[in-house]
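Sample entry (469 residues):
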Amino acid sequence: MLKFFPLLFLIILLIFTSSCSTTNKIATLKPEPDDATPLVYENTPSYINLPISIKLRDIENQTNSLLNGLIYEDNNIEDDDIEMKVWKQAPIKIENDNGSTGEKIKTVLPLKVWVKYRIGTKKLGVELYNYKEFNLNGVVTLISDVALTNWKLSTKTELKSLNWNESPTMVVFGKNVPVTYLINPTVSLFRSKIERKIDESIEKSMDFKPNVLAAIEKICTPFQMSEAYESWLRIVPIEIYSTEAKLKNDSFLLEMGMKCNMETLIGRQPESKFNAAKIILKPVTKIPKQISANIAAVSTYTEASKIMTKNFVGQEFGSGSKKVKVQNVAIWHKEGKMVIALDLLGSVNGTIYLAGFPEYNDLTKEIFFDKLDYALDTKNKLMRTANWLAQGLILRKIQESCRYSIKPNLEEGKQSMMSYLKNYSPMPGVFVNGKMEDIQFQKIQLTNQAIIAFIKVNGTVNVSVDGLK
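Predicted structure, serialized as tokens:
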């Protein structure tokens, strides 16, 4: 009986030591995360269409507000025996001159004319004059050629006709004598004045540069695509192009386009790179319709870790009695690589660390890790304590589960862009519309908070400026 106890103790000791040899505690050095500077991704230039639609009624309203009251005055009666004042009598009407060849506008100006006319002579210092005053109402019709010059819609106006509402008369020797023959020649005196007044007022009212630049400045203000991931889209203008203005029905149509870079930035709101002083208007015959936009599909490390942890659920790695299960996954950035921390339970207990470069599979829309290997300290400890786990076959099997789909992120990024392409109005009278085609993967970059997959989307964007304010 006494001999039995040493034998029993030996068996228990062997079982205990055998059990201890199959479960190794591993304590490896954690590769501490480092900082990845915020991203600025500049793509190839894109084009945004800026069709400017200006209705004739807007020109009419602006012209009426600028041209009011007295529009011509001649107070010198000595040179031609006439004094004259001309007022705008009623609102000016501006319309398409459909009866003319080419693109012209017709301006109808109701006016009131006051004329002081003298008849007589001056002899030996004695004035022998008879003065008469007339108040006349009439309508002047002017025809204008239209051109675009230095951001302004300019006109070259000519007086086409002047129709009096009634024929002016004066009493001469007791008879009413028509004096239209006296008044009409005076039209030549103020004709050029009226033409110039019309041209100046239209040019001033049609300086659309402030409107266009204000719209572009709004468009170029970085806007947030995702609040959760702090992703921003910034448009940086390079050049502005413009075709010739075309008059169609009741509107002037001006095709404009902006050559720009679209940058995606992660982090705090970036500054705008809009500089009105550097924008030059260049004449072109055609504006490109297609644009290419870059979108950031952002996966935070926390999000990616949760997805990969699910991939390992129920899986065992190893052979025979030597197996481990992955309980949890955590990932972060270090020196351009991804560090993947795996919490193990089984024949080896503890945390091991892998490192590799993120890649993208365009077919499956998955991010995977190329050249995945154990971190140096992890590899050294596994070689001493669990060499079987350090073998390449097990590593490859683990690597198969170190992947996750970013398809939801891609769709979220696309939907974020689409929200700005459905009649989005950054300011009154400015509307953004467009459509997007399928997405194309570009590249992956890392920040200290997330994996960023950059994608390219082709489509069309129209920014319409409708009306003058």
